[in-house]
Design goal:
Elements: E1 6-9, H1 13-24, E2 29-32, E3 48-50, H2 51-57, E4 67-71, E5 74-77, E6 85-87, E7 95-98, H3 100-113, E8 117-119, E9 122-130, E10 133-141, E11 147-151, E12 154-157, E13 183-192, E14 203-207, E15 216-221, E16 226-234, H4 242-252, E17 260-270, E18 279-280, E19 283-285, H5 301-320, H6 326-329, H7 331-337, H8 340-356, H9 359-367, H10 373-381, H11 389-398, H12 403-424, H13 433-446
This protein binds flavin-adenine dinucleotide.
Amino acid sequence: MKRPDVVIVGAGSAGCVTARRCAELGLKTLLLDRKPKEEIGQKVCGDEVSKAHFEATGIDYPEDKEISSVISGADVYPPNMKNELKVRDWADFDGWTVNRLIFGQRLLREAISAGATFMPNIHVGSPMMIGDQVTGVQYKDLSSGDSVIIKSKVVVDASGFAAVIRNKLDNALVENDISKEDIALCYREILTLKMPLAEPEVARVFLGGEIAPKGYGWIFPKGAKVVNAGIGITGGDGRGSPKSHFVKFKETYPLLFGTKVIDGKGGAVPVRRPLKSLVGDGIAFVGDAALQVNPIHGGGIGAGMRAGIILGEVVRGAIARRDVSANGLWSYNTRYLSSFGQRLASLEIFRRLLQSVSDEDMDFGFERKLLEAEDLMAANRGDGFSLSIVDKLKRVKRGAGRISLLIKLQKAAGLMKKMNKAYSNYPNSPDKLDSWEKTVLDIIESANFE
Ligand SMILES: Cc1cc2nc3c(=O)[nH]c(=O)nc-3n(C[C@H](O)[C@H](O)[C@H](O)COP(=O)(O)OP(=O)(O)OC[C@H]3O[C@@H](n4cnc5c(N)ncnc54)[C@H](O)[C@@H]3O)c2cc1C
């Protein structure tokens, strides 16, 4: 392809969906990935993706061999493993664990069928620039060893956590300084169990500083006797490696005794609100490269797919109007950040709240039901969890003795509402971004629950 309209770097779930949408809308679309074609989709992941994302995007549900297990509920355990919260009928969580390789291969096939050109074994090194405008990329063809420059009207960085283009841009609109506290380091194993699962459709989530400092552990079913189990901890020194925490967890959790390891690997995922701007001049970011991940559970497959659909439409419009500057691409920000992005941002507050609660308080909160399944669902929707006066009084009674915990809950609910409001007022042009960012940073600063 001589001069594509759009070059997309990375054929993960976000890149493939963006490529498909761009191609469907008639753009000359080039999708590049450093992996060989048959490895596209392979990814260290918890493999869970909810149905709601497919409903929101119109992407076909996973089928047949793409599905490892149907998921319809979660048990959330506090540190002492007692009084777990049984979450059922949670539309935002129910879905599937998928076979990542087969699912990823399908998304790639759909992009190619829509007309995108895919080139595997391509290592993208850096953006090509004229001033602040990204005009293409430089890459190395890993098969031939050739170094090549390719020009395009728009470049999309969909290279995942590596964010290979974003990290090389020096522009006030583009954030690169992501705090260690906002990155989850994970280790997960695919395990064969000795006994079949009693509830093969229920995911298990484990909270507490002992199991996973400022993070969580999970066991997601992948079949009657197979699970995806792992630990994610947020960065920062002195918290040990996720693998060492996982080894300890495996030694203490009876379901995992005597299991056979099919695969074990580490990975990283951002758990912050999305980038303040998802675009610059001639460039847009999608998926993990845009920090489009749910900050409480690290789920990013759906968040990136939702963004890819919007981005394809925005790129098409910007090219048609011959304005691929940040201004021309801005409606990607307004469409994503004031809708799904708003939810992710308010969940960052909830993540900060969870991380501040001591194991002892967490056990107490679960025992006295200070936080209920409905609150968790409302929080995940990004609604905040508004406690009615009667409800508050009931909880105050139940929480007598740990009033500080209720105060934290109440404060978090208020800040989540504020964050929602800020995102619903996302500026409609780049010149107002600074004052908007200040509002958001003030909310984040107040979200200190220690
Ligand atoms: C342990 C773990 C558990 C997780 N569990 C879940 C879960 O259960 N559910 C969920 O929804 N999300 C989960 N996530 C997050 C989810 O995996 C990511 O959010 C999602 O895969 C991001 O998709 P992406 O397309 O942005 O990036 P990726 O899937 O990482 O794709 C990026 C692509 O870019 C390519 N690339 C990178 N650098 C270059 C380069 N220089 N040149 C060319 N190509 C390049 C890579 O080869 C890759 O194919 C988890 C993450 C981790 C680490």
